[in-house]
Write a structure and sequence with these properties.
The structure holds two protein chains of two kinds. Chain A has four helices and six strands, in the order E-H-H-E-H-E-E-E-H-E. Chain A is an alpha/beta fold. Chain A is globular, with a radius of gyration of 14 Å. Chain B is of the alpha/beta class. Chain B has two domains: 3-16 and 72-134 and 336-444 and 454-481, Rossmann fold, CATH 3.40.50; 136-330, Dimethylsulfoxide Reductase, domain 2 (3-Layer(aba) Sandwich). In chain B, the strands form four sheets. A nine-stranded mixed sheet of chain B has the order 5-4-17-16-15-6-7-13-14. The longest helix of chain B has 24 residues, at 458-481. The chains are: A alpha/beta, B alpha/beta. Chains A and B meet through strand 1, helix 1 and helix 4 of A and helix 2, helix 5, helix 14, helix 17 and helix 19 of B.
């Protein structure tokens, strides 16, 4: 597996670049069904899942806040450890993912929501 | 009865039947593209109080009280008004608009979708569904390659090899595996799960991957490369060597051999995912099954080159049909997103991103698709039907919605209703409004009306707006003629 993050790790600012995948989770879908005004929904769609190695590189532990910077905007997320390859992150669909997604659709109508290159700062 | 009066009066004369509990069998859940129609719902005093057999997502959706925290009254610029007043304001906005957009439509009935297309034609609007931001690229690919497909019932009865590519049904379509594709015994797979081989191909090890016989972890952006390699391997396979013996299933030895060339996470020692040997064996598995089904998710369409990814998957399935029966079905997300593709296709000839500004339908993904139109700031009015674009579109697209008059037809409060100029509360399809939904395999499923609603359906609201605009246009023509 290509290590996407190590080449871009910045020791001074504790910043790494990762490939971000956004997607559905049971919690996000259930909260969307209940209503998007709930705190639990906001927390779910603002929780980024990172690999153990990436969390060590950032020197953060689960539950801590990280800043995620995309091409179009940036957002504060809570990090969570998950079974992911190093250099790949996961974020549920929602407002945070919309901030990070670009608007270019490559003439298909579909902006890129999977495989976004973002910077994560501790 | 005057239909116009009937929908505007209903809101001040709420129908609330008081009576004992009643259980309704065979209810269709409208949350996701599975549209499971075996749900049992208990209703008391006009509210859904119990849901059985549904998944977590379906239960949350069906149990959500419509009128408790929903949109309670029509609103114009944040002020509560009568339905009559809100309909008049919506019609006025759309009549004045030069380049409107109609968006959403994936969570409403095909009856309402048909009226929405009529409205688009009438006002010269662009009409696009949430299909363009989920499986739109796949729909474009189908136009080039074609789609060897089947119903989910056929997959349930016949498939002995099921592949999920870029899809995580355990979380996005929780009953897909148990009801249609994996667990349920079928006519030619009587032992259900034991007679099927399940392969998951994904970037991350999802809950679905844990339920599979084989998980192949791939790198981000590598779908097209891997699918193309598989096409080549399948094409190089001599047909006579791998044509399956009648009645044979995929052999466990093939799965074991596949597992041997990769470790538990799907990685090989050299760090290439998957190995050429793994791909060769996967190709053999595909060509030697009796009936294969490839379900692709938005993992293919939402990543870079989405259309080409699906093109490669369709080509692969086409090649596989030289050896065995193989089908491909997209894992459609919203309840009736397949419906709006069908309705638009049969009404205009195109499945999404259709523009009527010249008086006839034009197809233009990238030009008339909602995200592109909104990001360029082109629409001067927007109608949103059963969708929440403020929450689901990129921020730059959602920002434009705040700058132009927006008419929202939705049973619930959402970030989009918060910014809307006109909010028209409606009955919820499948709960308080009947109609038809199309399942992900394009099979129509009728919806029951379980409870009475004080609100009109999407179809009635749109029909009323169309009638008002037509009436105003006729009046203008008559004045011009005089």
């Amino acid at each position: 597996m290509t290590n996407w993050s190590v080449d871009h790790c910045n020791e001074h600012t504790k910043s790494i670049r990762i490939v971000l995948i956004t997607g559905r989770t049971i919690a996000q879908g259930s909260f969307a069904g209940h209503g998007k005004g709930w705190f639990d929904y906001t927390r779910e769609v603002s929780t980024i899942v990172l690999s153990e190695e990436d969390m060590q590189s950032l020197k953060v532990s689960p539950g801590q806040a990280v800043r995620v910077k995309g091409q179009r905007g940036e957002a504060i997320c809570i990090c969570k450890k998950g079974d992911l390859p190093q250099g790949v992150g996961f974020l549920p669909y929602g407002r945070t993912a919309n901030i990070l997604a670009g608007s270019d659709t490559a003439a298909t109508g579909m902006p890129i929501y999977k495989g976004l290159v973002v910077a994560v700062e501790a | 009865m005057d239909p116009e009066r009937s929908i505007t009066e209903r809101i001040v004369q709420p129908e609330r039947t008081v009576g004992p509990e009643r259980t309704i069998e065979g209810v269709a859940c409208t949350f996701c593209g599975c549209v499971c129609d075996d749900i049992r719902v208990t209703v008391r005093q006009n509210e859904v109080i119990g849901v059985e057999r549904a998944c977590t997502l379906g239960r949350a959706y069906l149990m959500r009280p419509q009128h408790g925290e929903g949109v309670t009254t029509p609103r114009v610029n944040g002020k509560e008004v009568s339905l009559e007043c809100a309909l008049a304001e919506a019609s006025s906005i759309l009549s004045r608009s030069k380049y409107p957009l109609i968006f959403g439509l994936s969570n409403t009935t095909i009856e309402a979708q048909k009226v929405a297309v009529r409205l688009a034609e009438l006002i010269g609007a662009s009409i696009d569904s949430t299909s363009s931001v989920c499986h739109g690229p796949g729909t474009l690919a189908k136009q080039y390659i074609g789609e060897p497909t089947s119903s989910l019932g056929e997959v349930m009865n016949r498939a002995d090899l099921v592949i999920f590519w870029g899809s995580n049904p355990a979380e996005s379509h929780p009953r897909h595996m148990s009801r249609y594709s994996v667990m349920r015994p079928g006519l030619y797979v009587p032992r259900g799960r034991k007679d099927r081989t399940v392969v998951v191909v994904d970037v991350r090890k999802t809950p679905s991957a844990r339920a599979a016989d084989l998980f192949l972890r791939i790198e981000p952006w590598s779908d097209y490369r891997i699918l193309s390699n598989l096409i080549r391997l399948v094409k190089l396979t001599p047909v006579h060597e791998l044509t399956p013996v009648h009645g044979s299933h995929v052999h466990w030895s093939q799965i074991e051999a596949l597992k041997e060339c990769s470790d538990e996470s799907g990685e090989d020692r050299e760090g290439r995912l998957p190995t050429p040997d793994t791909l060769q064996r996967l190709a053999s598995l595909m060509t030697s099954c009796r009936y294969g089904a490839l379900f692709y998710g938005v993992g293919l369409t939402m990543s870079r080159g989405g259309m080409m990814n699906v093109t490669a998957a369709l080509r692969l399935v086409r090649e596989l049909n030289n050896f065995t029966r193989f089908v491909i079905i997209p894992m459609r997300g919203h309840g009736n997103v397949a419906g709006i593709d069908n309705v638009l296709a049969w009404r205009t000839g195109y499945p999404f991103a259709v523009n009527f500004s010249r008086g006839f339908p034009r197809f233009g993904p990238g030009e008339f698709s909602a995200v592109d139109l909104l990001c360029r700031g082109e629409p001067d009015a927007v109608v949103v039907i059963a969708a929440d674009p403020v929450s689901s579109l990129p921020v730059s697209a959602a920002e434009h919605l705040k700058r132009v008059p927006t008419v929202v037809i939705d049973p619930y409060v959402s970030p989009t209703t918060e910014i809307a100029s006109v909010v028209l509360p409606c009955a919820k399809a499948g709960i308080s409004a009947s109609g038809t939904y199309y399942r992900m395999d394009n099979v129509p499923v009728p919806l029951k009306r379980l409870v009475a609603s004080v609100y009109p359906s999407d179809e009635e609201i749109l029909g009323s707006i169309v009638a008002r605009i037509e009436s105003a246009m006729t009046g203008r023509r008559e004045v011009d003629a005089r």
